[in-house]
């Protein structure tokens, strides 16, 4: 999954940016609830802490944006969430947008993710097939026609101007089906890396730290060293 | 801090319930931002996973309710957040409520915590002193008069019917100053344990699991064993 | 109806509190609209005025909470509405909740009651059978299976974590069907009396009056004497 | 107060309509809280029930619109609330509006009344003098200059396009000061009677009853006979 | 279309006001999108600028209210939009309202128009036939029974107390079908002219300009002379 | 002003895109109200119609985004509004944002522009100096220190994570002062052109037309030929 996403990201940015994929060494293959996002979020912060000094921006490559807001509080570089990037990009392309995904099990979580961006007022809902596919690896092949049908329904019946294809199993599908959907179709990973490049440009002259609204420096116990140091604002972690 | 909170909880429930205090072995003394809540939340889930089978309900004894919603997804017993319990209790006592706390550094975080409950429309804001006290241990003595003044201002100027005293350093202060404030004053830890007892009663006949809206069972890597097992819905964790 | 509710209340509180049932001597058997709530509300205020000095808290035992907010303005003890208590309790047990009731005629009124709590953003709607049952006294027997089906639909299709059984004809049904519903089922009268006990505890040290935000003392004409006196803040009523 | 309002109403409608003033024989001189509105509302319904068959429309001449929504449920003629009429008229004259009134004691109640209309998103707040005038009868003389100053502040600082003069003591003041305020100034009683005439026109061809969304017919106990009959949908009241 | 609307307006106001119909000499026959409203709005401003000094109020006789808010900024007389007038009038007649119109193509635009009034919280949606009629001129004859059916559905199923018949092709239909619909039916052009008369009364004593919140006077290039002058606040246009 | 904006745009995009500046031949130098936006919007549509076939995307280079939504309805290429692009970019960089601008006369209009994006819930308001500068051309020099002070206040007191410098007179100032502000400072023109490039990428494989939700093709009278043709969906304009 990481490989596929990295390939999409590289195809998107070309030679304008270098993509450094990082995979969590613990946790889950993908995120589908607040509980999982809570756990994954702590791991995400550890991973960012480890790499923050050597990259220009971070893309959290899970649709639910685990730890997105917390990461922005802690680290002085642009942090991009796939869901939020897809939503804001969609909002720049049309008045309203919907999410199409591969399983009804994702509906609640994806709805929460969109509401968390603050743009729920322009959101037309999550559309999914009635049942979860047996194998996620073949989703694009098996569900391709269904995805086009659902995206078309979102456009014609729900008045969505833009369709976000949500979830890692659909990564890379958007450009393949775009011409068959009567609305703009967005690949979140592509949206995220493009927005990351834009945000690096927008913060090129910013002061460090990027904001005054940071948590006070704190001593912690038992956290991974780089994260503890970030929480301690760069001082020695206890 | 844990001892003080446990004492308040015990004084509140008397012999109607047993209080089992559990302290995190890693993390921070208190939580003041989304980043800290994100990290603490994962630890909270680990702690709940360890004790869920031996208690009737859980109170997450930090005002920001780290992992509250995630914990409800995973575990089949009542999970109470201090901030949410204080807010819902306040809403049952008056039309509007405010939070009074000890430091301006908490304003943003506490405001976010209240908004997360969905009752922001009845919320009159966070009132704090202009500067953070030098020593948190003496806050109740040093700031007592200020707290009364701020609570009175919240009532008279901001039309708050109920005042929530937010933050562990103020735990236990509410009953001491209540008679000097022209509004109802709430101690969140007391509200939380009382609500926990009520929720145990309300779920006495419920089916297990408590809800159908749970994340699908998942295999994980590298998590603490009890948490991994909870995520795997009781099956063997990988 | 009063007897049944009192029995449920007594079974809920055990020997922790005394339940004193009071029935209106004029008005309607139950409330299903704003007009009826308006009329009943005035009668409720009269009844509270008569008993306020001899009880610790008041439960307004009609799902629409007639005069709840007005009563809080006037009287210096906790006033609990059945609908509001059920809603706030539900919000402490899950992210979202729905109301299941016995007649489509109640849909609009119950929806208004929930919106009035300010928690409409976590509300998944009212589910009812298509037609009103012929006899309200046998609702629990006649509709039992339907209620379970509707509650299950609310959980699975509408993603409600908690189901409130609304309306006096369903009082006492919740514990009987709870184990057959894949969500938490709440009896509003039980929620209300438990919350009343909590609120008495939370206001044990409060100043009198409980709030500064009270209407100015007023002379009135033609009202029942105890209510006139309450409006006159305890002075002699004209 | 009734005489003054009737005079303003008559001056407003000229010979296009007959004004029939009706005064409550019990209750309060004016309304300043939900408790008072609750009580007054029941009395208002009794009064409307008594006169509904002999008038074309009803204006509830108290700024808080007691029983407005309940009355619409019960009676098949236009029911106009002074506050709601002023708000909707203001919304037709400008993007935003504010309320200026004579006493800080009214702030909370008037704010609630405006929010109840659903147009709180265009509302810029209630402006009042710092203290309540000693004598309400001389408010227009004593506070005239202050009212102009507050209305001007509402326009220039709060960006209100329209100013509603709230409360019976200010009735009739609007046309006298309008030319000195850099915004449109509205007298609620004038707005209410003009809207009543419009609503009579708009319902001239309507079916009876005016709506299908009425409470079911109900038997009641102890209510004034005409109100009981209205609740029983014109059948004999018990 | 202008003739029909003028006839309805004249029948509504009788001899209380003179109706002066003005038709745009460029643009579209009717408006169904933001793009069209944007273009029409500029033309509307030109037309108002030409006639503002010789009329007492302006009704913008297109359901989408093109340039309504802009016109209020510029001109010192009441400006009434048909949609907004219908919405505010509906809100004075019932708790909730719906729009019934002749074509599914109007759904999105009419929904936006209602949301723009700020009263979307009382709105129950747009109901239309499934397909657009072939000829708009015969809509009232061809669709009459369908309109009644949809209005009845809006009342019974969607709980709308008031039905607005939207769109010029339905102008004048409301009084003809009103007695067959179990809710109040509103003709927007009638609502608009009646509101215009009310607003003239409400501003009879107002200062000129009507508000301080006007755009600063500006020099423009290439605009129609009367509009340029209005933008220049009555000074010579460049 | 056009030259300055074009220079900023070119410096932002480097050799990745060609900037083709187009200036309106009629209208106003800048936009500060809905009336002006209404007029300018029609002209904007004419200009886009003229150039749509020869560019990849359009930036409407006025902070109020005149005709943004209408243009998206009509034209099948990305349309970017400066205000909306700045807002969405700000939302990707922090939890909350504020606008700092050069004159109190812009407050109302800029507030409306932000609310129109749907992200008002993350907006902390418009900050301006107390009076409008005498000469707009020297604003950056004369007001530089004030802008830094206001941006700092927005960050520290209003908790804005990101500051948008609004209005053409401040174009290009952001990178010069960014290092002196404890928050991220955004230049809207830079944000807009970067977003335009991203949107071109995101729509590279899209179908034409970009959306099914377009107004029906219409015949018009008297419009500029290219605009009339766009409204007629590419057919011959009448």
What does this structure look like?
Chains A, B, C, D, E, F: This is Putative hydantoin racemase. Chains A, B, C, D, E, F: GO terms for molecular function: amino-acid racemase activity. Chains A, B, C, D, E, F: InterPro entries: Asp/Glu/hydantoin_racemase (IPR015942), Hydantoin_racemase-like (IPR052186), Iso_Racemase_Enz_sf (IPR053714). Chains A, B, C, D, E, F: It is an enzyme of class 5 (isomerase). Chains A, B, C, D, E, F: Its EC number is 5.1.99.-. 6 copies of one chain form a homohexamer. With 238 residues, chain A is of the alpha/beta class. The first copy, chain A, has 2 domains: 2-82 and 192-231, Rossmann fold (3-Layer(aba) Sandwich), CATH 3.40.50; 97-187, 3-Layer(aba) Sandwich (Rossmann fold), CATH 3.40.50.1860. Chain A is 43% helix and 9% strand. The first copy, chain A, has helices spanning 2-13, 34-51, 68-74, 82-93, 107-116, 139-156, 174-177, 188-202, 225-231; strands at residues 58-60, 79-81, 97-100, 123-127, 162-165, 184-186. In chain A, the strands form 2 sheets. Chain A has a 4-stranded parallel beta sheet, with helices on both faces. Chain A has a two-stranded parallel ribbon with strand order 1-2. In chain A, helix 5 (107-116) links the parallel strand 3 (97-100) and strand 4 (123-127). In chain A, helix 1 (2-13) packs across helix 8, helix 2 (34-51) crosses helix 9 (225-231) and helix 4 crosses helix 8. The longest helix of chain A is centred in the N-terminal third of the chain and has 18 residues, at 34-51. The two termini of chain A are 36 Å apart. The model of chain A has no long low-confidence stretch (mean pLDDT 94). The interface between A and F is large, with 54 and 54 residues.
